[in-house]
Every structure is written in structure tokens, then in C-alpha cells.
Write a structure and sequence with these properties.
Helix content: under 10%
Order of helices and strands: EEEEEEEEEEE
Shape: elongated
Distance between the termini: 41 Å
Number of strands: 11
Largest sheet: 7 strands, mixed
Structural class: mainly beta
Length: 119
């Protein structure tokens, strides 16, 4: 079992910056990826950024060059630095952890954090 607790987010004007963090607890050794997703009203949840246990990073096309995912040395906290935010970045952002126990894969989600970009 994993528990994910998110913090950060809020409101910012277009062009501004916000940071999110997500801390995992529980069966940390079973995690093989920590990701950020977002879901805007009326839209499907989409991948924003991901970092695998070995450190391979990927981004969704819409955030490349503006968002940066990173993590602490213990690999229990993942961060999302969001710069040059746009109105279309407005969404609820979710932390996700993928874990494997034996041959079974598990998906864990944080509580979600609202990010609002508006003038």
C-alpha cells in the first residue's frame, strides 16, 4: 500500500509560476514511477510529467519547456515546477504512483490539487 499526499497549487495569473509536491509513504520500494496528471472540466485526465525509478523523465507535449518534474534523493517526494502558466493549464492536478508487487501492478493517486490560471 502507498499513500500520496499533495501540496501546493492555487491561483496565478497567466505567465506566472506555481509548484506542486507529492510525498509518498508506505511501500516505497514497490514504486517504479511517479507521475503528474491533470484533469480539466469536461476533459479526460492527461499525463503531464513522469519520472521512473531510474530517473527517466517524460512530459506531455503541451507542457514541454514550461514544466519540470524532479524528486528528492530518497525518491519519496516528487515535485512539479510550473512556469509560464497558461489559462489552459487550469485543472485539478493529481499525483500518481505506479507500483509492482510480484507480478501485480498497482495504481495510487493523491487527493488532487486545484491549479487555476486566470487574469
Amino acid at each position: 500500500q502507498l499513500q500520496l499526499v499533495q501540496s501546493g497549487g492555487g491561483w496565478v495569473q497567466p505567465g506566472g509560476s506555481l509548484n506542486l509536491s507529492c510525498t509518498a509513504s508506505g511501500s516505497i520500494s514497490s514504486m517504479y514511477s511517479m507521475d503528474w496528471y491533470r484533469q480539466a472540466p469536461g476533459k479526460q485526465r492527461e499525463l503531464v510529467a513522469a519520472i521512473t525509478r531510474p530517473g527517466v523523465i517524460s512530459y506531455g507535449d503541451s507542457v514541454k519547456g514550461r514544466f519540470t518534474i524532479s524528486r528528492d534523493s530518497a525518491k519519496t517526494t516528487v515535485y512539479l515546477e510550473m512556469n509560464n502558466l497558461k489559462v489552459e493549464d487550469t485543472a485539478i492536478y493529481y499525483c500518481n504512483a505506479d507500483a509492482r508487487v510480484g507480478v501485480e501492478d498497482y495504481d495510487y493517486w493523491g487527493q488532487g490539487t486545484q491549479v487555476t490560471v486566470s487574469s
